[in-house]
Amino acid sequence: MTEACPKCDSAAQLRSKWLLIDAHDPERAQRHPDTRGACACEGELGVDGLKPEAVADAPLQQFVSGLYCEACGIGFVPEAMAKPAPQRWVLTPEGYRVVQADGTLGPAQPRMGG
Ligand SMILES: [Zn+2]
């Protein structure tokens, strides 16, 4: 167990907890374009945000064996269970640049078809 709370970055107050997550809902993705941050375990989380092997069979799909930080009062899933956050890009005058894990921008990519 090497997981740490994404908020306080400590594992001292962690305990395992069954978490109720959002059901798979394709419309949700459209109402709320990905709200997850750099860590895949943060932000709005649904069944569709987890790896298939981390999701139980129906009707228990919405329950996952997650972690709960007593100090912060937040539940989260181990990062290993979450799909990687989608790659984000920003458009700059130089072209599209990837947003790296630390929030900095990567090198500009040549424009498509340019
Ligand atoms: Zn915490």
Give a concise summary:
The chain is mainly beta and 114 residues long. It has one helix spanning 26-31; strands at 14-20, 63-69, 74-76, 89-92, 95-99, 105-109. The structure holds zinc ion (ZN).
Description:
- By secondary structure, the protein is mostly beta strands.
- The protein has two domains: 14-81, no CATH class; 85-114, no CATH class.
- The chain is 5% helix and 27% strand.
- It has one helix and six strands; from the N terminus they run E-H-E-E-E-E-E.
- It has one helix at residues 26-31, and strands at 14-20, 63-69, 74-76, 89-92, 95-99, 105-109.
- The strands form two sheets. Strands 1-2-3 form a three-stranded antiparallel β-sheet, with no helix packed on it. A three-stranded antiparallel β-sheet has the order 4-5-6, with no helix packed on it.
- A hairpin with a 5-residue loop joins strand 5 and strand 6 (105-109).
- The chain binds zinc ion.
- Zinc ion binds at residues 5, 7-8, 10, 69, 71-72.
Structural class by secondary-structure content = mainly beta
Strand order within the widest sheet? 1-2-3
Oligomer: single chain
Q: What is the beta-strand fraction?
A: 25-35%
- Total domain units: 2
Q: List how many beta strands DSSP finds.
A: 6
The main sheet comes to: 3 strands, antiparallel
